[in-house]
């Protein structure tokens, strides 16, 4: 099948776009409001975009609480959700009024970061502490702004639980990061881990 996105007439029950661009890692974004309130929300439009410097981004569909707080405070955390926290990650996606803590809604422990004034999920195996470098509203071919806002952050601190370290590496079979697959589907990134050696000359510089 083929269809054009200007009409989006794919004939399917659900729009397949987000299922095609999958799996997508989930950035569990922690922020703190100027009023001191704690906010936590999972974003599947999230990824690492640079290793030097270490940069990540999350994209908010509309002006949500995480975007507001990150813009106002200039910082955020990204806890990475693992399989043992999948249900609580899902619970934290509930739409609640500003000022209501999703940490409490989902039964999670909010711990303050070491270098930035933002909370993270204490139960998470890995956490990135970030300072905002840019917030942009991308545009389409018509030059009009998308219904999304991209928040870029430089990673200034990293937490890794000793529980998932084996042989000087993160054991993905233990970490079991989860990813969004589209629709209501998620994937367990530790379920079928395999290794491949890249072709000569393709290895990145360390």
Can you give me a brief rundown of this structure?
With 206 residues, this protein is mainly beta. The chain has helices at residues 17-20, 65-73, 86-91, 102-106, 172-175, and strands spanning 24-25, 27-32, 38-43, 46-51, 54-61, 75-80, 110-112, 119-121, 126-136, 148-160, 165-166, 169-170, 178-182, 185-188. The strands form 4 sheets. The protein has a 7-stranded antiparallel beta sheet with strand order 3-2-6-9-10-5-4, with helices on one face.
Overall geometric form: globular
Assigned CATH class: Mainly Beta
Give the neighbour order of strands across the main sheet.
3-2-6-9-10-5-4
Do you know the CATH architecture? Roll
Give me the Rg, rounded.
Answer: 18 Å
Low-pLDDT segments: none
What brief labels describe this structure?
206 residues, mainly beta, 14 strands, 14% helix
Provide an overview of this structure.
It is built from 5 helices and 14 strands. The chain has 206 residues and is mainly beta. It has a single domain, classed as Pnp Oxidase, Chain A (Roll), CATH 2.30.110.10. The strands form 4 sheets. A 7-stranded antiparallel β-sheet has the order 3-2-6-9-10-5-4, with helices on one face. Strands 1-13-14 form a 3-stranded antiparallel β-sheet. Strand 7 and strand 8 form a beta hairpin. It is globular, with a radius of gyration of 18 Å. The mean pLDDT is 94.
Give the topology.
Elements (H helix, E strand, L loop, with lengths): L16 H4 L3 E2 L1 E6 L5 E6 L2 E6 L2 E8 L3 H9 L1 E6 L5 H6 L10 H5 L3 E3 L6 E3 L4 E11 L11 E13 L4 E2 L2 E2 L1 H4 L2 E5 L2 E4 L18
Antiparallel strand pairs: 1-13, 2-3, 2-6, 4-5, 5-10, 6-9, 7-8, 9-10, 11-12, 13-14
